[in-house]
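Reviewers of the previous submission asked for a worked example of the structure-prediction workflow described in the proposal, so we include one complete record here. The input consisted solely of the amino acid sequence. No template or homolog information was supplied to the procedure at any stage.
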Amino acid sequence: MVIEEIIQWANSPNGDDVPRIFLLSGVAGSGKSAIAHTIAKLFNVQKRLGSSFCFDRADQANRRPNNLLSTIALDIADLDHHWKASLGNIVKGNRSLRTTLSVTEQFKKFILEPAMALTTVGPIVLVIDALDESAEGPSRKTLLDTLAKGISDLPSNIRILITARPERDIVIAFNSNQHILCKYMNNIDEASNKADITLFIETQLSDVRSLELEWPNKCWCQKLVESSDGLFQWASTACQAIKDSRGLRATERLHRFVSSARGLDALYSEVLWQAFDGQDNDVMSRFKLVMGRILATKEPLSISAHSELRGDGEPADLVELILPLLGSLLSGVDQQDVPIRPLHASFFDFLTDQNRSKSYYVDPSHANRSLTLSSLRVMKSGLRFNIGDLESSHCRNTDVPDLATRIKKTILPHLSYGCRFWADHLRSSAYETDILNEVRDFFHHRFLYWLEVLSLTNKMNTASRMLQSVLNWNQVSQNAI
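From that input alone, the workflow returned the following structure tokens.
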């Protein structure tokens, strides 16, 4: 079993011949993320998890290689107080270091130097999931080189589990390195893979009593294992859907999945068909409106934020009508203020490929016009002078002790999103007089208030780029007329 192999590797005695990195590679849906999350959970229980980081395609704003090492450094600081003290001394009084985007500098200062003070005995496991989603190839080259070449300088008890699709630059960077063990999911023994999926399904559905009553002696589990065709993601999605009791019994969902949903695309189509009648134009229109905006947003937003950013004329409860039906495919759909994320990136791949999703195809580019106008709308209603209610304009932001509390209270997530990304959506929208009029109104009446929000949220550095985007949109669109 792959999970047992990873556990044995992580717990193996320190030595120069023990690989420091375990690269688990495979195609979409092969189970990399499910295994990574299982390992992280197991070692977290044992107080051996140094950090768990997942690159999220849905979070375009924060999906950057330079976020990884700083996060890992802070997470390990919570595990080892000597590391924490060393890291604090390194960054104290060094503003440029605290804000550096250099991966090489981060690795040296945030990882290697604090590691010299590490006192924890026994394995410290770091989990990096979906490394292939960290950025496009050229942008992640430095991170790959840093991990591949710098791993041997770390303490011998640090173990790093990395999952990724077998993309060429990752394979080249990590292959033929004595400190890196590469395991490809398509080369994993079929019996081992089947055992892992069986264990996963039993763990997920063991408390659904109706399954055992219908198919005793865990025959229900065997049906799902056989239907999964070795795909962890199929098993994971099916389990999530079976546990969702809305509309259909667990036994009815299982029967449908094993009868007609072989393959990941077939499963996604079946889950969507159970939730949304593909022949109903009103239902499908609402589904595509909501999912289009979720796919087009630059970072994951909650149900409440998406509701605030809905298009003009759309029902106030539109988002809440659609998203709760997608609990087996998206996380955060049962809470108002938790960002919506795909349980697996392959679902978004499916939706945006018309050959695969057929009638459930969603074109996210169509949502940019709506998001542009809704962002301008929420800024029109939400921006105001001195939005942070500061007592003095002569006081630096860093000197306001409760600034974070003030920001959370007055700059709500939908307003923050609109202020940070309206120009990105504008750039991807076709030229329209209605949009131009709203942009003009923004510059005439709310431009300075917008800059104030960017300053309070420490995003002032994005203003020039956004203004250039507006200028380019106007010039290109005018020339096209």
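The beta strands are 21-25, 49-54, 124-129, 158-164, 180-184, 330-331, 341-342. We consider this example representative of the routine output the project will generate in years two and three.
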